[in-house]
Amino acid sequence: MKYLYVGIDVSKENASTQGIDGEGKKMDFLNCWTSSQSIVTKHRKKRTKVMVAMESTASYHVNLFSYLTAKRINTVIVNPLLISNFTKLSLRKTKTDKKDALVIAQFILIHKDSLTQLVLSSEISDLRDISRQRESLVDQMTAVKHEIKRLLNITFPELEKVKGLFTKSILRLLRHYPSADSIKRASHSDISKIIIPGSMGKNTAATVESIKKAAEMSVGTNSFSREMIIKQKASILTHLGEHLDEITYFLIERCQSAMYEDMAILKSIRGIGDKTAMNFLTEIGGDIEIYSSHKKLIAMSGLDPSVCQSGKYEGASKISKRGNRHLRRVIWLMTTKVVIFNDYFKDYYAKRKQDGLPYKKAILATAHKLIRIIYAMLSNKTSFNVKAY
Fold first, then answer.
1. Of 3, 107, 243, 336, whose CB is crowded by the most CB atoms within 10 A?
2. 192 CB contacts (<8 Å, ≥6 apart)?
3. Total number of domains in the chain
């Protein structure tokens, strides 16, 4: 059977396609869509085995990848870093779209045996997009919170000592009275109408009195510009919180429906809840069987060690950070939680600290331990059992 290796260089508006046979002989195509048609019709009639590859380029490759896989063409997504390093092997520095497509085709010709096709179902792909949108909302909210705290340190620095700044009732208060001076001029009843309703009994007349008292003794500075900004920031944070609640509820509901068993297995580890479990499962692709070992999963997250050693010189060991940064983030969050709430991982973390590891390295060592256990649990469909590890 003949072989055809096709490289596609995808950009926003078009794509260049270059094919080579098993001996490296070039075969030109007009563009990616007509190429795929010709692959399906012309080359399959000739009993040609086709392998297509393209770089992961933001969102530009998604539609083409979906189209080719729907046609049952063996298509792989290659890390751009691998193609970049492969390009450096050539002495020529010419760079064109056609040249890039040829390099991709040559890469898969050489590495065809080590490349695997990773196909996410449309549902998992959608859940991953929503999960990353949720992560983006969390980041935005964190940035807004920092801004509000910075501004309140000028207009009403004592408020933080009286009540938590980012409860719904205090955010409502800041949307109306964003400074000590404005609260000082407001009546008790006006403030009570804002912060007491909907607080589930947490805010009372005593709370209003303590806020008023703090405002009267405040050293805050009057600033109409900062007051306006605080009002807007409080409003933005409220809306972001509503969006976050909506998307979190949707994600948990869908993940429990699609991956109920795996969600339950992960949550059997004390310290892992619905949010981290669903983020982890969506980022790994929804199925642990994608990975042949826990080492592959660790490498996918970029938590594998990167060692620099030459002769007598041995540099400091660092993580590679060449994997999925979203997965790396959720693993870090999971680890920091289990070392607090789970005695097994708390003891393991303490042992690594006693061995002389600093905080971050001890957390990373615990993260590796956690991933090994999670991989075994999901592979064997078993819940967490301390005696088993």
1. 107
2. 205, 208
3. 3
Q: Which of 223, 254, 285 is the last residue of a domain?
A: 254
Give the burial string for 342-373 (b: 16+ CB within 10 Å, else e). Answer: bebbeebbeebbeeebeeebbbbbbbbbbbbb
Identify the helix (H) or strand (E) that includes residue 189. Answer: helix 188-195
Domain boundary among 207, 230, 254: 254
Nearest to 282, CA basis, from 250, 244, 235: 250
Range of the domain at 347: 259-388
- The average confidence (pLDDT) of the chain is 86
Q: Which residues contact 337 (CB under 8 A, 6 or more apart)?
A: 271, 272, 273, 276
Write the pLDDT tens digit of every residue in 99-145.
Answer: 888 888 888 888 877 666 556 667 888 898 899 999 999 999 999 99
Sign of the Cα torsion 79, 67, 286, 274 reads: positive
Please identify every stretch of the chain with a pLDDT value under 70, giving residue numbers as ranges: 1, 28-48, 91-92, 114-121, 307-316
Residues 80 and 161: their CA atoms lie apart, in Å, by 50
d(CA 352, CA 369): 11
The contacts found for 98-101 with CB under 8 angstroms, 24 or more apart, are 98/9, 98/16, 98/18, 100/7, 100/9, 100/16, 101/7, 101/8, 101/9, 101/16, 101/17, 101/18
